Amino acid sequence: MTQNTGISNNILDLIGNTPLIKLNKITKNLIGNFYVKYEGFNPGHSMKDRIAIHIIEEAERQGLLKKGSTIIETTSGNTGFSIALVSIIKGYKCILAVNSKASAGKINMLKAMGAKVYVCPAHVNADDPRSYYEVAKRLHRETANSVYINQYFNKLNGDAHYHSTGPEIWNQTNGEVTHIVAASGTGGTISGVSKYLKEQNPAIKTLGVDAFGSILKKFHETREFDKNEIYPYRIEGLGKNLIPTATDFDVIDVFEKVTDEAAAHRARELALTEGLFTGYTSGAVVQATLQYAEKGYFDKNSKVVLILPDHGSRYMEKIYSDDWMRDQGFFDTQKQAHEVVEYI
Ligand code: PMP
Questions:
Q1: Whose C-alpha lies nearest to ligand 1, atom 7?
Q2: Which domain holds residue 202?
Q3: Which of 18, 261, 273, 308 is 20 to 30 A away from residue 34, measured at CA?
Q4: 144 and 120 in a common domain
């Protein structure tokens, strides 16, 4: 924010400094105090704005980017949107290689932000020249003055959170935070935030959130790659089928897995109870917090910060669609007939 005038120079000035909001209802039966760091308040509606601006400005400092350069990444998700946003303001071209599973709505959104989108076949191996990884690598090789963000294997991903999200949480809680609960995909958020907070107070506990079908929890516990852990699941953005070097497993204390179904219902409940309209992984983070509470992780002095990665508007065709919920079988079970609120 520009000093004194109250006017921002451009939209990028508004990245970060997201609010910390107390949960009042959804955690009312738990012992402890619970707050959400709601990253949907970023201008690109997710915490990925932080890594986009950090990585791009670092590349500028290193002289890798000049006006008119090209930024390349492989994602149809939040990171793609954030890179496109930063590219517009800074005058870079943005190329996103996405796989053909990405919805038309997502591709339109990226195009609306000026990105050139390459749609690559989803069902080919990662090393196939048509895969979105290989297409991105080739475009990077062939395009002069281009930078490949490569968020899963880029150390600057965690650095972005070490320098912004972590200090914000520390300051907003006056240094009283005792636990963080965070989803892990690339691992950038949880690793960067945790490293910063543990440097301030080593007693702070970092509680990770993983999906059934993902390798992260098992790898954290055993440091072995057990491919039996890997199978398809619905939650997007959390969990992984490979080990990203952007994740620092040493600063994560424990992982908890959540189901697709519980996370989806919990996101809907968060909207209905707290008025927080968030994404699927935010539901996963709240669900994991409830599971951690049940396992006795918190006491009455606990100040627990849940990092909610993004805004709910990107999930209208998924968790906020009754048809989609029904198609997944998430409205079907006897148990839910009593728990599910009517959304019609
Ligand atoms: N939630 C959503 C919606 C995401 O897009 C991501 C990023 N893959 C995450 C959670 C996980 O964050 P990180 O990549 O920083 O681990």
A1: 237
A2: 11-46+164-328
A3: 261
A4: yes
Q: Into how many domains does the chain fold?
A: 2
Judge whether 285 and 307 are in contact, CB under 8 Å: yes
Are 92 and 25 found together in one domain? no
**pTM of the predicted model, to two decimals?**
0.94
Q: Let me know whether 23 and 131 are in one domain.
A: no
Q: How far is the CA of 25 from the centre of ligand 1 (A)?
A: 25
> Which pLDDT tens digits describe the chain residue by residue (344 residues)?
445 678 999 999 999 999 999 999 999 999 999 999 999 999 999 999 999 999 999 999 999 998 889 999 998 789 999 999 999 999 999 999 998 878 888 899 999 999 999 999 878 887 899 998 899 999 999 999 999 999 999 999 999 999 999 999 999 999 999 999 999 999 999 999 999 999 999 999 999 999 999 999 999 999 999 999 999 899 989 999 899 999 999 999 999 999 999 999 999 999 999 999 999 999 999 999 999 999 999 999 999 999 999 999 999 999 999 999 999 999 875 445 445 555 44
Catalytic residue check, 116: no
DSSP state of 340: P
Looking at the fold, whether 25 and 174 belong to one and the same domain comes out as: yes
Calpha distance 291→254 (Å, rounded): 12
Taking alpha carbons only, the member of 314, 340, 310, 308 closest to residue 325 is: 340
Rounded CA separation 47/64 (Å):
24
223 and 80, same domain (yes or no) = no
Q: Within this chain, do residues 59 and 102 fall inside the same structural domain, yes or no? A: yes
